[in-house]
Write a structure and sequence with these properties.
The protein is mainly beta. It has one domain: Roll (Ubiquitin-like (UB roll)), CATH 3.10.20. The chain has one helix and five strands, in the order E-E-H-E-E-E. Strand 3 and strand 4 form a beta hairpin. The protein is globular and about 40 Å long.
């Protein structure tokens, strides 16, 4: 299946991934070579759990987690 991922706000890039059917948001993040604990996945404008299954044609937004003092 194919999903589109928008990396925000720091990278501002869009990537398309071909994943196995039933892949999760966490698997999509890892397929991009990223660490899941550094990104918040959103389907539309709604945050989603990392273990939620994706569907063919989904568009995800990945928001980078910013920390510091």
């Amino acid at each position: 299946m194919r999903v589109t991922v928008h990396l925000l706000p720091t990278r501002k890039e869009t990537r398309r991934l071909d994943l196995e059917k039933g892949a999760t948001a966490e698997q999509a993040i890892r397929a991009l070579g990223l660490l899941p604990d550094q990104w918040i996945p959103l389907r539309g404008d709604t945050p989603m759990p990392l273990d939620d299954a994706l569907e063919d044609g989904d568009e995800l937004k990945l928001i980078s987690v910013v920390s510091g003092g």
